[in-house]
Amino acid sequence: MLTYSPEVKAALDAHQPVVALETTLIVHGLTAPDNLRVASEIEDVIRAEGAVPATIGLVAGVPTIGLTAEQLGALCASPNVPKLSVRDVPIAMALNSHGATTVASTMLLAARAGIRVFATGGLGGVHREASTTFDESADLMTLGREPVAVVCAGCKSILDIGATLERLETLNVPVLGYRTRRFPGFYLNDSGFPLDWQVDTPEQIAATMRHHWALHDTRGGLVIANPLPVEQQLDPALHDRVLAEGLAEATRRGLRGKPVSPFLLGHFHAATHGESLRVNIALVLNNARLAARVAKAYL
Ligand code: PSU
Ligand code: MN
């Protein structure tokens, strides 16, 4: 059902540390030509830490664990590559479609491949006005099910962060602040919401993973919340202004469902003249570095 790159297959067989990476972030969250360069920078950070990156996506209907540079290039170059959530994966397989995987569908495929650590930018979550639109990312449900630790900079600031944290609690998903007691706000170091738990080392994270899966028969994910250092964050005043404009514009356009997150990220990148792009790239690299250290500590 899954295809592996030779590098990832060899690493998994030899019980070496492997870090999963998603493709929606690359294909829909960033733009050409930055996206391909960033994809390889993320992989380089993981290799430099002594772990093996496994970028995940669908190539002509085949779920692929460890896309080659050529395969990633094809996903980035093909027009209209669908953003695949968990429920879309079997359909894309049946139709031999390319596909970019989200946090949710990357977790699903990573779990099937036996990969326990995954680095991304920000989680999906409960959208603002979800009480009328019901728009809650499948990332949350999937965190409740699939045994993968997701290293992220919190959830995207376009979301209802308080509601997202409440849902994670309901779903029994541990949320660990890495060297912080504040939930990070993606572009911002601090979302304004407190966390119950802080951990300070990859070993503490790995020990939590072991206990979680021992208690739950290897079911359910964990969130490792890894803030960008405050000096690298987006200027909070600029952030708040651009966010308000973007939300108003998304409403004006009547956007619903899958296009909402890519639209708002694109709006940020344009309205901040690339400053949010710099921050987005920095936080993903920061997460990749920590994820590699966690994968090594978990062995
Ligand atoms: N993090 C980023 N950029 C992104 C995403 C995460 O820095 O584009 C993607 C992830 O793939 C996440 C998705 O799963 O946004 C959430 O989309 P939605 O809200 O439609 O579930
Ligand atoms: Mn949605």
Could you explain how this protein is built, in words?
By secondary structure, the chain is α/β, with parallel strands linked by helices. The chain has 2 domains: 1-115, Indigoidine synthase domain (Indigoidine synthase fold, 3-Layer(aba) Sandwich), CATH 3.40.1790; 122-299, Indigoidine synthase domain (Indigoidine synthase fold, 3-Layer(aba) Sandwich), CATH 3.40.1790. Helix content is 47%, strand content 17%. It contains 13 helices and 13 strands. The protein has helices spanning 6-13, 24-27, 34-48, 69-77, 89-94, 103-113, 130-133, 138-143, 161-170, 202-215, 236-252, 260-271, 275-298, and strands at 3-4, 18-21, 52-59, 62-65, 83-84, 99-101, 117-119, 149-152, 175-178, 182-185, 188-194, 198-199, 222-225. The strands form 2 sheets. Strands 1, 2, 3, 4, 5, 6, 7, 8, 9, 12 and 13 form an 11-stranded mixed sheet that branches. Helix 11 (236-252) packs across helix 12 (260-271). The longest helix has 24 residues, at 275-298. It is globular, with a radius of gyration of 18 Å. The relative contact order is 0.15. The structure holds pseudouridine-5'-monophosphate and manganese (II) ion. Residues 135, 137, 257 line the site of manganese (II) ion.
